[in-house]
Amino acid sequence: xxxxxxxxxxxxxxxxxxxxxxxxxxxxxxxxxxxxxxxxxxxxxxxxxxxxxxxxxxxxxxxxxxxxxxxxxxxxxxxxxxxxxxxxxxxxxxxxxxxxxxxxxxxxxxxxxxxxxxxxxxxxxxx
Length: 127
Description:
Helix content is about 55%, strand content about 0%. It has one domain (about 10-125). Helix 2 runs parallel beside helix 4 (about 70-85). The protein is mostly helical. The relative contact order is 0.16.
């Protein structure tokens, strides 16, 4: 959770009562979903299926590419809250991944997409 958002938004299934108990989505908090997952992780357990449920297409015109610095800074805020709330300690790999994410903001979108797809598929599918 200190490297990236571990829960792909289109695949999440949760009890509505748990979402409400965690406070639901906070308007204006970027990224809204990651923020909610951290608050939910403090009150319940998550289970990650190893079977891919969706094929997620990333393209340069996507919403996140239009505000990537704001998204990166918001993700850092959520990761700090995750560490404090869940008692997580950042290791070397966590720090290295976050530094790489910052540097990658300056990469062309096509290169960021290729790197993102490789990293995400290796983590999610377990390669």
